[in-house]
Fold this protein.
Amino acid sequence: MTAAATDLPAAPGSPSAAAVYEHLVRRGPHARTDLAAVLGLSHPTLTRLARELLENGLLRELPPRPQAKGRPQLPLDVAEEHVRLIGVKITATAVHTSVVTVRGQSLEELAAPLRRTDPDAVIATVTELCEALRSSHPRIAGVGIGLGGRVDDDGVVAPAELLRWEGPVPLRERLEQALGLPVSVRNDIHALLEGLAWFGAGRRHDSFVAITVGAGVAVGTVEGGVVRRGAGHTAGLTGALTTVTRDGRGVRLMDVACNDAVIEAGRERGVPGAGTGTPEQRLQAVLDAVRAGDPAARELAAEVGHAVAVSAAGVLGVLDPEALLLGGESVGLLRDDPAFAETLRALLPAQQQDVVVRYLPDDFEDWARGAAVIAARRFITGTDPV
């Protein structure tokens, strides 16, 4: 353990103070009168809370803002330099980390390959990267972890198929012991959704669905700004989402759209580069060939796009969200070939033709930032989000 809890940056400390701080984090500067009205607080209560947060370094006052009547007001805003969070995305081949501000701005990123995926090796790699970031960013208040697998409320992971973890792994407990920091653990798609709900699509859309195609295939939903994890915390993670291929076969979407399936289909179709190199190199070769207009690659993209479109249309039909977000390492198959968009629109009813479709970057920055948001929420409220 490298730090004691008393060394951590001051946190809001009460539910009311947390509500003030969170609102300013997510919505930006507010005058005291406006803030009191939005949060339903009396002016004396808001004055007391603001004074405490200012004294503890969490807030700052901005220059006076002239008013039509009365004295100029001093808007309140968060002091972003007060605290930093670390977000961690664990894959089957690497650990990706990012230091972010409480508003989700990435300040520094580090990554390291995983030569082994047993818990000891993964925890050692995460610890090494986090300690390296702490050496340059001393005001770290917590760490958020996102990984593929089922995670319970205590941060115990079991199972995690991509990492070949079968038995329960108390990941949160072990990392808190190693780092001396509060650690929050979530399934990676749920962490991604938390980040998007706070600083991404959630700023523009009250409800959205995310479908990711990568090492696995996952579906996530946000309604009213709340990530739906499900009764057993496995919502969208079971791999059971079905689809129909262009020739009419009923299959699981992951059997068509995950990285391994894409690579193998590329090899069988003779896509240049799909048969040699590491899995990452072979996948990249397929994506490059799609962008270059290679006929075999475009045919493969059309097959994957059709399968994802069928599944997506079913999900949209049931949930009727404002937006559909698509991400994952293989998202380029959907973004760079028109087949997906054309098929999806053809399958949607007239009432849902205006659904917004957005593509996430195919790197891991959003995933790590989402994990950091989990840590930020724990810093603000003192507990992990449910």
Notes: The first strand starts at residue 59 and ends at 61. The two ends are 27 Å apart (CA to CA). The chain has 13 helices and 16 strands. The domain at 82-195+366-381 is CATH 3.30.420.40 (Nucleotidyltransferase; domain 5).
